[in-house]
TrEMBL record:
Catalyzes the ATP-dependent transfer of a sulfur to tRNA to produce 4-thiouridine in position 8 of tRNAs, which functions as a near-UV photosensor. Also catalyzes the transfer of sulfur to the sulfur carrier protein ThiS, forming ThiS-thiocarboxylate. This is a step in the synthesis of thiazole, in the thiamine biosynthesis pathway. The sulfur is donated as persulfide by IscS. One of its GO terms (biological process) is thiazole biosynthetic process. PROSITE patterns: THUMP (PS51165). Its EC number is 2.8.1.4. The keyword ATP-binding applies. It is an enzyme of class 2 (transferase). ATP binds at M181, L182, H206, F207, R264, G286, Q295. Keywords: ATP-binding, Cytoplasm, Nucleotide-binding, RNA-binding, Thiamine biosynthesis, Transferase, tRNA-binding. Pfam families: ThiI (PF02568), ThiI_fer (PF22025), THUMP (PF02926). The gene is thiI. It comes from Salinicoccus roseus. This is Probable tRNA sulfurtransferase. Belongs to the ThiI family.
Length: 399
């Protein structure tokens, strides 16, 4: 079958009435980004969008957009001239792919009210023609195994029968911006992708401590950002914070069993200041209740005490195996398990306190002036984004 269009159905956008235009515009932008490199045309309408393939492979185009937030499902579509013969031939073509004994239904949308055949005429004509020409199929109008969809529009007849389910949710960028604390482990990329599902745009912050952390560890975080950007069609910016000076200061001055708490507190202070600068409205992390010493309720309380910013923890109560399953589905797992140490693993205390009290931590921290080092770390931030790399590569190929 020669498919020449892709039909895109919207997810939660269809629940919006007043500001739907804004949601559709955001989705159009994100789809366009995910389809960079394809010579397609995209028309986003009030209740659905159409992609004109211009000869591009329909499967490849659907692969590229199936994880764009806001899309409920997609179908490859054949656009036909407005003739009975063309419709009949296509219906049989579709039905030949069905298995013997299966049931089908012809579903008609007659947008062009002036077309000479009425809805029932088309259903009757095509249903009968398929039954005559494809053996061992039955019609079932209530619970069919397959639906053959026929849309009569002014510019032609659109027919399709396959439906590929997509991710749904809301288009990224419609829910404000948040800063994701991205560690390179399994959890934080999943946490980021979860909030993105609700339309939230993400920038990421990563703390590294060279030479204690290897360049490969930082590369791995960049790779995770690439995977997340590619998957969602969103351009995620990564802020890499030089953390060595602070980390060694903590190591030297804070008792071993409290150092993890202080490390997390300072990371959160820096994250908050960056979030404010980028007009972020929340910080997101991959914390999971009870998973490690720094993630008990008392620990979270002591760490959280440095900020009034909302800290979103989308994985808070999940089981580890559920998170692993999500990471596999999102395609981040293989990269997350690469064996490069991150800064917390290296400076990990032997027996971190599971119940650090705020007053105690504050007492030890008051002996050190962290503030100038915090400001220096913020000044030393390096930025990375997939698009910048692609732009740089494209630019250098012109030279
Ligand atoms: P992950 O798999 O995300 O690393 P984890 O179970 O290893 O999670 P921790 O290492 O205790 O958990 O970290 C908890 C959260 O703190 C992480 O999910 C992440 O959001 C944040 N975090 C930890 N280390 C870093 C880092 N080097 N840079 C940025 N964020 C970090
Ligand atoms: Mg970690």
């Amino acid at each position: 079958m020669i498919y020449d269009h892709i039909l895109v159905r919207y997810g939660e956008i269809t629940l919006k009435t007043r500001n739907r235009k804004m949601f559709i515009n955001a989705l159009r932008q994100n789809m366009k980004r995910a389809l960079t490199g394809f010579s397609i045309e995209l028309a986003a309408q009030w209740d659905r969008a159409y992609i004109t393939l211009n000869g591009e492979d329909p499967e490849a185009v659907m692969d590229a957009i199936e994880n764009v937030n806001g899309i409920l499902s997609v179908s490859p579509v054949a656009k036909l001239e407005k003739s009975e013969e063309a419709m009949k031939e296509t219906a049989v073509h579709f039905a030949e792919e069905f298995t013997k004994g299966e049931t089908f239904k012809i579903e008609v949308r007659r947008a062009d009210k002036s077309y000479h055949l009425k809805t029932f005429d088309i259903q009757y004509m095509l249903g009968g023609y398929v039954l005559e020409n494809v053996p061992d199929l039955k019609v079932d109008v209530k619970h069919p195994d397959h639906q053959i969809m026929v849309e009569v529009r002014t510019d032609g007849i659109y027919m399709y029968h396959e439906v590929r389910q997509c991710i749904g949710g809301l288009p990224i960028g419609t829910g404000g911006r948040a800063l994701l604390m991205l560690s390179g482990g399994i959890d934080s990329p999943v946490a980021g992708l979860e909030v993105m599902k609700k339309g939230i745009e993400i920038e990421a912050i990563h703390f590294h401590s060279p030479p204690y952390t290897s360049p490969q560890a930082t590369e791995k975080v960049k790779q995770l950002v690439d995977i997340m950007s590619k998957r969602t069609g969103a351009d995620i910016k990564l802020h890499i914070v030089p953390f060595t000076e602070l980390q060694t200061k903590i190591y030297d001055w804070i008792p071993d069993n409290m150092s993890m708490t202080t490390t997390r507190r300072i990371m959160l202070i820096i994250a908050e200041r960056l979030a404010e600068r980028i007009d972020g409205k929340a910080i997101v992390n991959g914390e999971n209740l009870g998973q490690v010493a720094s993630q008990t309720l008392t620990s979270m309380h002591a760490i959280n005490a440095v900020t009034n910013f909302p800290v979103l923890r989308p994985l808070l109560t999940l089981e580890k195996n559920e998170i692993v399953e999500m990471a596999r589905r999102y395609g981040t797992y293989e990269t997350s398990v690469l064996p490069y140490e991150d800064c917390c693993t290296i400076f990990k205390p032997k027996s971190p306190k599971t119940r650090p009290l705020v007053e105690k931590v504050e007492k030890f921290e008051s002996k050190v002036d962290f503030e100038p080092m915090i400001e220096k770390a913020l000044e030393g931030i390096e930025c990375y984004s997939v698009n910048e790399t692609e732009e740089k590569e494209a630019f250098s190929s012109l030279l």
